[in-house]
Design goal:
mainly alpha, Tetracycline Repressor, domain 2, 0% strand
């Protein structure tokens, strides 16, 4: 019979392994990856012909894209561990607290990248694989290692990597970069600056302490607030392009207009009637905005069918 000490030791080892797995999972920024996979999934479902539905593409495409996105997040946390230590929202990340070492982070990041790449090559197609790796390098290296520290327009230029997932999803189905996929890319690309700048306004003191030249630090809160408002107006126009081009129908158009006007209103308040929580409210709405917009695209397509 197993002794009480042996049972205790096995239980302790199991608990340790579970904690390590949780720490590794936190390296991948699961909430961010979930949003990336969701937009990629919508791109897939919009690209699929009405009478053709491939579970293989849905399963392996999203798995490969998600693993590579998780890898990019790991690289991001490795490169930003000094900055993360200065910011309240990131001080508990595993690379900052010491739960995960730099070597472990490298192993997890490279392992996820290799596994995701293998799945995309074996089960999806080469173009999707190449574009996924390009977006990974764009986020983990070009944006994180260089742009974020080089210019206050970092998030505008680096937003291209974050806008890639719906294109990747569309490409996984069709094997090509369709103009409609580029509309989805444009929607996320234009959404990115007001989304992050609202957060940067709310966390400006922390970004300043970390030495990151975000727009509110270099140009001031008032200027950044005007930029959020201008981009929200541009986003409203871009959000109606799927309807204007025939990609989507009236359901999407009405929903996009309502969501867009709400974004504009919050941005207007941020400029002309700001309160301590206005930037944070704008940021939180912007997250929901993107999810609802892609959900609307999906509902419009399949309810129409």
């Amino acid at each position: 019979m197993m002794s009480a000490w042996s049972r205790f030791d096995r239980h302790r080892q199991s608990g340790f392994i579970f904690q390590r797995l949780i720490a590794y999972a936190r390296l991948t920024k699961p909430k961010v990856v979930a949003l990336i996979v969701f937009t990629a999934l919508v791109g897939m479902l919009l690209a699929m012909p009405n009478n053709e539905f491939s579970w293989q593409i849905i399963l392996f495409g999203n798995l490969g894209i998600g693993l590579c996105a998780g890898s990019a997040a790991c690289f991001n946390q490795m490169l930003e561990r000094r900055i993360d230590a200065h910011m309240r929202r990131t001080q508990q990340r595993p690379m900052v607290t010491g739960e995960v070492s730099l070597v472990e982070g490298v192993v997890v990041a490279v392992g996820l990248m290799l596994l995701g790449t293998f799945i995309l090559i074996a089960k999806v197609n080469l173009l999707t694989t190449l574009l996924t790796l390009l977006s990974l390098v764009g986020y983990a290296v070009v944006y994180t290692a260089y742009l974020k520290h080089a210019t206050p327009q970092n998030i505008v230029i680096g937003g291209a990597a974050g806008a890639a997932p719906p294109v990747l999803g569309w490409c996984a189905v069709t094997g090509e970069v369709h103009p409609y996929a580029l509309l989805l890319f444009l929607l996320v690309f234009v959404w990115t600056p007001p989304h992050f700048w609202a957060l940067a306004i709310h966390r400006r003191d922390e970004y300043a302490a970390a030495g990151v030249p975000m727009l509110p630090i270099t140009h001031g809160v008032a200027y950044t607030s005007y930029q959020v408002l201008l981009y929200s107006l541009l986003l409203f126009a871009v959000s109606l392009l799927p309807y204007a081009t025939g990609m989507s129908g009236p359901l999407y158009a009405v929903g996009a207009a309502i969501l867009g006007l709400r974004f504009i209103y919050l941005s207007y308040v941020l400029v002309y009637h700001p309160k301590p929580d206005t930037a944070w409210r704008t940021f939180k709405f912007s997250v929901n905005y993107l999810m609802f917009m892609f959900a609307l695209l999906l509902l419009d397509r399949y309810l129409a069918i």
